[in-house]
Amino acid sequence: MNAQAETQTAVHVRPSQNEESSESLLQIRGLKKRFSLSGDFLDQLRFKGGRLVRHQEHVHAINGVNLDIKRGEALCVVGESGCGKSTVARTVMGLITPSEGEISYGGQRIDNLSSRQLLPYRKRMQMIFQNPYASLNPRMTIQQTLEEPLRLHHPNWNRQQILDKVEEVMRSVGIDPDWGKRFGHEFSGGQRQRIAIARALAVDPEFIVADEPISALDVSIQAQVLNLLMEAQQERNLTYMFITHDLAVVEHFGTRVAVMYLGTVCEIATTATLFEKPRHPYTQALLSAIPRLKDDRPQHIRLTGEVPTPVNLPSGCVFHGRCPHANARCKQEIPVLQTQDDGTRVACHAVEEARL
Amino acid sequence: MALLEVSQLDVRFALRQGEVRALRDVSFTLERGERLGIVGESGAGKSVAAFSLLNLIAKPGFIAGGSIKFEGQTLNTMSERGLRKVRGNRISMIFQDPMMTLNPVLSIGEQMLECLKAHRRISSKEARSIALDKLRQVQIPSPEKRLEQYPHELSGGMRQRIIIAIALLLDPDIIIADEPTTALDVTIQAEIMALLLELCEQHNVGLILITHDLGVVSQVTQRMLVMYAGRVIEQGPTREIINDPQHPYTQGLLNALPQMATPGERLNQIRGSMPSLSNLPSGCAFHPRCDFINRTNGQPRPACTEQVPEFVTSGNCRVACHMVAEMIEDRRLKEETS
């Protein structure tokens, strides 16, 4: 009873807060996430010089990320594996609790809510995962899979309403409603991803976090799923947070792009600006690495070395070890995002000092 | 005579539900120092093609017909003993996942020396110096230290470099690379591909690159094969196929790429998905997904649904498609009448 009251207040507070920040739907402020590598308390104890010391190691997955997602846009988050892009997505969805920082949705802080308090937000924000082979429950039929979120979020709907909604959502993603009796394993990867999208759309969300939704699919199927996601955006006026490592997809799909490297955002720009005029040296290298069809041998900016481990972060700018423009300042001082003339935000000393 | 000649290769898998034909009528050649790309989606049979070249198809799969000739020797009928002299020595292979390829309990040095000593009678000292030389060629920093390290101590990109070094150890004539960069990040992928290309050019090594990434193929290879449902459907010079694809599937595949579309517009998609090999459509395996069959008064062209298309030559390319064949025939007739 008490919990119900709480959810109701959450719902009531929303509109007034909404007016203050009508532009951005989701705000991430100073987000940090550390994962412990050292196990529980007893595992952390070590003998060192005859004394018992507690030794802790952390993976610094996200180190102070600030992002705003505006209503109706598709914000793409790109970066290489281990840069923390999936962790950001999962923290936004409340699947991981952040170590520090705040996440607000429609003006209302959501990172500190209990799962029951989060329930009304879960209806408004849904997630699509990378691997459709793992994200569908193998023991549920497609019908059951699609009914489950509806039963949870619309407890007062009758059977017919639920059936109608399931049929409608199946049609909208291009699956035959007769397939409802089948199980996930009977479908191909592309069809499974359609079902996963249908599940996310079933509760009519306004915000969808898609974590590499097409990476596991073949080229011809990728186009189908990408088209489906764009159609859904137009029809339902959705806002996307789209996590991917594929820059060609970003160029096609994204309104704005945030480039991440080792747990920090190094550049945020509108898609057109980013592809036309990448500022951050990492963005430049990343763009030059896309294998293009047309030009035979592109000028590829070769980066030296590899991505450092997020366990022991480099001092200063996290990219300085591989950056061709790094100087002494880059090794010591952490750059912050600074707004450029055209609205692009870049975290780079070289850009700031106009060395680049 | 070409260095490698594959003709009419037919690979089948004897499964409980019957025989599945994983490859049919696959024919291609590779000249010395040439780089050939094999492209297709998952299930097209491109990896089976690569594995069968060295007779590495595991049971229940077997080569049911055709021939693979390397310098005139027929590899598919050769004894295991004879094959061992070719594998890793004259033709070496790079696999997709570097962690699966390297033995986790042997140091890098042991794995490299093992390979050298299996094929050549040389002292450990000589072997070591060859190994170090190859590690330098693939631009691995502090190679002496790497020889003592184990695979888990290295990053993905580094492991793939080690594997390239091992593939190059015995100065092979051909390297078969099966999705060598799929497991790697974009920037690392670009580095590894550039390295592989450079080394192949330097040492005049032939490369068979298997990938689903058309961008990579267009940058690295000179000729390419496009595979669909166990069959080659189009082959020819890479540039020509990329710039002017003939087969509707190749066209669809290229048009489906986001870089071919205007940002924000709908992508051109191929409807449906690749058929399962155990249940192939009749006639041209692509006909249920093909957009061109409905041209003649809304009905599918009977040839497409009934008859498996033969290869026709179109420019420098060879295409297996009834529609392309018809168009070429029409053009020929027009020229004859005029």
TrEMBL record, chain A:
Annotated segments matching region Disordered: 1-23
Coiled coil: none
Keyword Nucleotide-binding set for record: yes
Biased composition (Polar residues): 1-18
Biological process, per Gene Ontology: peptide transport; transmembrane transport
Gene3D superfamilies found in the cross-reference section: P-loop containing nucleotide triphosphate hydrolases (3.40.50.300)
GO molecular function: ATP binding; ATP hydrolysis activity
Residue intervals of the ABC transporter domain: 45-287
Keyword Transit peptide found: no
Key words, A-Z: ATP-binding, Nucleotide-binding, Transport
PROSITE patterns the UniProt entry points to: ABC_TRANSPORTER_1 (PS00211), ABC_TRANSPORTER_2 (PS50893)
SMART domains assigned: AAA
Superkingdom of origin: Bacteria
InterPro entries (alphabetical): AAA+_ATPase (IPR003593), ABC_transp_ATP-bind (IPR050319), ABC_transporter-like_ATP-bd (IPR003439), ABC_transporter-like_CS (IPR017871), Oligopep_ABC_C (IPR013563), P-loop_NTPase (IPR027417)
Family of this protein: Belongs to the ABC transporter superfamily.
Protein name: ABC transporter ATP-binding protein
TrEMBL record, chain B:
Keyword ATP-binding part of the UniProt annotation: yes
Gene Ontology MF: a single term: ATP binding
A Pfam family that the UniProt record links to this protein: oligo_HPY
UniProt EC number: 7.4.2.9
Catalytic activity: a dipeptide(out) + ATP + H2O = a dipeptide(in) + ADP + phosphate + H(+)
SMART domains named in the record: AAA
Residue stretches making up the ABC transporter domain: 6-254
InterPro entries registered for this protein in UniProt: AAA+_ATPase (IPR003593), ABC_Ni/Peptide_Import (IPR050388), ABC_transporter-like_ATP-bd (IPR003439), ABC_transporter-like_CS (IPR017871), Oligopep_ABC_C (IPR013563), P-loop_NTPase (IPR027417)
Example GO biological process: peptide transport
GO cellular component assignments: plasma membrane
Similarity comment: family membership: Belongs to the ABC transporter superfamily.
Protein name, per record: ABC-type dipeptide transporter
Organism: Vreelandella nigrificans
